């Protein structure tokens, strides 16, 4: 992608409305634009990151056996009335009527709809277990949207819903998502700590929020510091192994970890003083087992091996991609801008032409750009006639992991400079060596 032809409206000054680093940098880098309170457009640079986040989420959901579908954003009120949540949900739900005066709503979540899909199609235990997920825009009329897309009214959510014949089966489905979430956040460059969450009126102890530690976190969290060094489940994780996944779950829940809502001061004080970690945290995922709450309310039953009908046990599993993007920035930035993990960076490499219009610089940059693009790299080519300082500031701001800098003096010697955005380390090498480093 040539920067001269790309849409990336950079802001030179810090926006006054941005209270936290991620909101400020996303606006300055031209990733998002606010359309109204709590509602944002994702501009091309931001959408590239969001798409890469979604791709990783999809890969890990698929790896864990979940199956993707797509459900509508507008839902009939009848399903919510059937479950009993239509009147109870509160003002966060956007309620509307269609031209026939039928009550509709802009979905804040999808338990009712997916239960309706399940009950209309699945009748036998032989079709279980089943986990259905989608990635979709949702709307909740937050009383105080803030921090950009960290807490917005319209947001994107990956929500998965599992269906099992028994509580034991449901726990295995829960553990699948538990391990999948650990892997997902790790691939996004985040260390997410699962913390026991409030299960509300449903009760039980199977509900966890996945929290990343950040100074701008919305709530205070408390945990054992060993979580920071725990190994993440590897590529070879067997998602069919009940014992293997239970071992992962047991390890990651063996030490104290709680948000402020679930904090037990006495239990935390029982942790050796040097092992306690108290910090601010950002919730990036939430998994929840709710048993037969919706299946009983909506008649979602299957025939069991005993010939009798049984209400299915369900769980829900949420990740907010539009929340994850600013969370990654909160965890990875410096005074100059964003530092993207390579897995979600909008571009792999930015090629900076220090003197556009100079034949040698132009030819060198074109050669590098073509070779890296052919090798499958996402390359941004800064071919603009901006000043050197502006080019460097832009490259640092948008956080592309690698910068290849071609100036007249270096090019005359057959060389370019390669900069690592994260460390700031610079290395001069031949043009051929620079290409080979990233093509190999």
Report what the structure shows.
The protein is α+β, with helices and mostly antiparallel strands. It is built from 13 helices and 23 strands. Helix 5 (167-187) crosses helix 6 (242-252) and helix 10 (359-374) runs parallel beside helix 13. It is globular. The model has no long low-confidence stretch (mean pLDDT 95).
Strand content: 25-35%
Separate helix tally: 13
Q: What class, by secondary structure content?
A: alpha+beta
Which geometry do the CA atoms define?
A: globular
What is the mean predicted local confidence, pLDDT?
A: 95
- Helix percentage: 25-40%
Low-confidence stretches: none
| N- to C-terminal distance | 21 Å
Largest sheet: 9 strands, mixed
Radius of gyration over all CA atoms, rounded: 25 Å
Tally the beta strands. Answer: 23
Short description:
The chain is α+β, with helices and mostly antiparallel strands. 32% of the residues lie in helices and 28% in strands. The strands form six sheets. Strands 3, 7, 8, 9, 10, 11, 12, 13 and 16 form a nine-stranded mixed beta sheet that branches.
Q: What brief labels describe this structure?
A:
alpha+beta; five-stranded mixed beta sheet; single chain
Write the SSE topology.
Blueprint: H1 21-28, E1 32-36, E2 39-42, H2 44-63, E3 67-68, E4 74-76, H3 77-83, E5 94-97, E6 103-106, H4 111-121, E7 130-139, E8 154-164, H5 167-187, E9 192-196, E10 207-213, E11 219-224, H6 242-252, E12 257-259, H7 265-269, E13 276-291, H8 293-298, E14 301-303, E15 309-311, E16 313-319, H9 321-331, E17 333-334, E18 337-338, E19 349-353, H10 359-374, E20 379-382, H11 388-398, E21 402-406, H12 408-412, E22 415-420, E23 426-430, H13 431-439
Parallel strand pairs: 3-7, 19-20, 19-21
Antiparallel strand pairs: 1-2, 4-6, 5-6, 7-8, 8-16, 9-10, 10-13, 11-12, 11-13, 13-16, 14-15, 17-18, 21-22, 22-23
Helix pairs in contact: 1-9, 2-5, 2-9, 5-6, 10-13
